[in-house]
Structure formats: C-alpha cells, structure tokens
Amino acid sequence: MNVLLVNDxxxxxxxxxxxxxxxxxxxxxxxxxxxxxxxNLTTTNYxxxxxxxxxxxxxxxxxxxxxxxxSGRVKDxxxxxxxxxxxxxxxxxxxxxxxxxxxxxxADELNTILSRYLPPKNTKPVYxxxxxxxxxxxxxxxxxxxxxxxxAATVHVNPSYLSRRFKAEVGYSFSQxxxxxxxxxxxxxxxxxxxxxxxxxxxxxxxxxxxxxxxLFHRNTGLTPREYRKNNPACxxxxxxxxxxxxxxxx
Length: 251
Known about the structure:
By secondary structure, the chain is α/β, with parallel strands linked by helices. It contains 14 helices and five strands. Helix 2 (about 35-40) runs parallel beside helix 3 (about 60-70) and helix 10 (about 200-205) crosses helix 11 (about 210-220). The radius of gyration is 20 Å and the shape is globular.
C-alpha cells in the first residue's frame, strides 16, 4: 500500500513516518515537502492514503487537495493541522477529506485511522518457507556483509530465482529490504545508544562506511544521522554531550 505524507517541516515529517512505520512496516511511504512535489509524485504513483499538512507553502491547501483529488491518483486524504476550529473542519469536509488529525498527533488517533486500512488482526503475512528463512537470516545477520548471492548460496537456490521470489512475496527488492532494515536499526541506535558514534553505528548495522550510512539516511529522512539525533527529545535530555554531538570520547 502506498501512502503519501506532505509536510514542509522535515522533523514532523520524519516523526509521522516513524509512527506509521511502527504500525504498518510493509507500507511504502512517500514524502513531499510542498504541494507541487506531492502533485508530481501522483504522476507515477497511486496512493491509497495521503496525509496533507494544512500549512503548506506555495499553494493553498484547498488547491493542493483539489488537484490531488482530481488526479484520480489519491483515494483518501487526511488533513493534518495544529488549528482546531470550525473553519478547519469545514475545509476538510469541503475537500472530501477522510479524516482530520490535530497536532501534536496522538498515536491513538493515528492508529484509529490506520486500522481502517489494515487487514483483520488475525491476518498476518504468510511467506513461503524459503522467504521466511531468508528474512530470519537478515534479521539475525544484518550487521554482516550480506549480498543476494551469498544468501542464495546459504539457502541453496539460484540468486535470480531468490530475487524474484523475494520481491513477489515481500513487496521490496532484497537490497531495498536490507537497507530499510539497517536504517530502522540505525535510527533506534542513534537514540537508544548515545554512547555510540555515527561510525560505530554504521559498523554495527552493516553499512560499508559512515559516509554511506549518512547518504542513505539523508535520502530516507531528509536529515543526517547527527541532525536526527540532535532533534530527538530523548537525545536532547541526555547528559552525555558525546551522544548528541558525536564528539570523540577521550580515554
């Protein structure tokens, strides 16, 4: 399922993305920092759900929402706003919004919306024994230098066959799934382990270098690992300057 998140605040965008990923890890999330970028994304993608921040620059919210609706490429729109008044509710009704979220976003309210797009709780993804084995290997060995070829050799199948089966069942290519898994763990370590440097986190999550982690992290979140760590409230509350500033620790 494709979901579009539109917000001009990178930190809010990332926080919303993390909230959704924690509930719906297999959804494909697309982000846009303004209305024009959102509209451009609809030219090549269909979205079952879009979260539209009401304080967008450049184009009014009604125009952006109207264009998203007219494109026929967005099924449902949820308005996200910091203002709770009748005018906002009226605007949401006027554009045919599926729902309205008031910031700061409550996890419970967001989950209520997300639950409408989830299969019944007793329905879980069912993978073949082959793909189940591969996923287990990735979750246990993500810190190692892994490739489709060596994993295929481990499970005794042809790499091309494994590539096709993995994409068909999981919905992501092997390499993209592994990158997403490593990035998720890197995000957790940035906050939960303020004693680790960015280079150490890169090493522990299987990235070839700190620079490679930083490049992929920025592409995925719009923030560098250091910015992500500094902007997180949990990190700001730490009393260890090394954790937040990533300065070397003297021995």
